[in-house]
Amino acid sequence: LSFGYWCTDFLVVQRAMAADSMTAARRTPLIAAVPKMFFPFLVIVPGMIALAMGDNIIPAKLTAAGTPLLDTNGNVVLDYDLATPMMLVKLFPTGMLGLGLTALIASFMSGMAGNVTAFNTVWTYDIYQAHIRTQASDEHYLWMGRMATVGGIALSVAAAYVAGAFNNIMEFLQLVFAFVNAPLFATFALGMFWKRSTGHGAFWGLFAGTVAPAIHHGISLANGATPGVKGGFFGVMLTYPSEMAQTFWTAVAAFTTCFVVTILVSLATTPRQDAELEGLVYSLTPTPQDNVKAWYEKPSVFALVVLAAMVLLNVLFF
């Protein structure tokens, strides 16, 4: 899911597409990875502070029936995702509380704006203009982009009601990634590094990679959850200790199915000539040259530093 997020999420890739050079495009995800490394601290430290404060500042997670969620030992599961909002309410005076809530809302709005922009771009240029109305005027495409924005916001409002059934937004977000990013990453990886991949293989691989997680989600359920949007709507055949574990195995089903089906269908269909794949497949694409002279300005050096920092953090805090 991590590779899928960085490599196939259009909100991230769109930034690199706007770069003025290959070097700048390669630096885009590397620079973004640096603040991303601090994100676990922003998630974990507030929960640790709230736990040390005591006073039952962290509320219990609730089941769909509104009762406290219990673990396998019968203990109440606390909702640490509410640590930051609850500390804002408890520790901040009125003026500072408004400022803190405004900062949270601003961060949500920023992410929302980026996703809506990515949504209307993909719909208008890659789908509508390419396959539905290929010869329309720029004015028409501008109108369609505006309508796509309205439609995207309406879909996000509907998704918010669905997300309300989950204990936290991260579990719902990971579920969406399991359905979308996991099979997409399998298709991208094969298409970029295996020249024998075909369009038919990619289509049926993505199709199967979307059906497989739907089936897995429909026959599995986390402990304490009720059948419905959280799974089990086909009947509970698999049980997981948490919703996140269920989601990760859903992603495994999506990625593996898409990967295998894409390979099988590609082997059974006619591949394209090498000349048609230049610039699309890694083995048939010239190695990009960085337009920098100093060694410390090269993206490859930056990438090694980021990789080393990632490994170090995982070793220290595993």
Q: What can you tell me about this protein's structure?
A:
This protein is an all-alpha fold. It has a domain at about 170-285. Helices cover about 65% and strands about 0% of the residues. The chain contains eleven helices and two strands, in the order H-H-H-H-H-H-H-H-H-E-E-H-H. Helix 6 packs across helix 7. The protein starts with a helix and ends with a helix. The relative contact order is 0.10.
Q: Short summary of the structure?
A:
The chain is 66% helix and 2% strand. The chain contains 11 helices and 2 strands; from the N terminus they run H-H-H-H-H-H-H-H-H-E-E-H-H.
The proportion of residues in beta strands is under 5%
Low-pLDDT regions: none
What's the main sheet like? 2 strands, parallel
Helix and strand content put the structural class at: mainly alpha
The tally of helices reads: 11
Residue-averaged pLDDT: 86
Radius of gyration: 23 Å
Topology:
Layout: H1 2-8, H2 10-17, H3 22-37, H4 39-53, H5 83-91, H6 94-132, H7 138-163, H8 169-193, H9 199-219, E1 220-222, E2 238-240, H10 243-268, H11 299-317
Features:
single chain; 318 residues; 11 helices; 2% strand
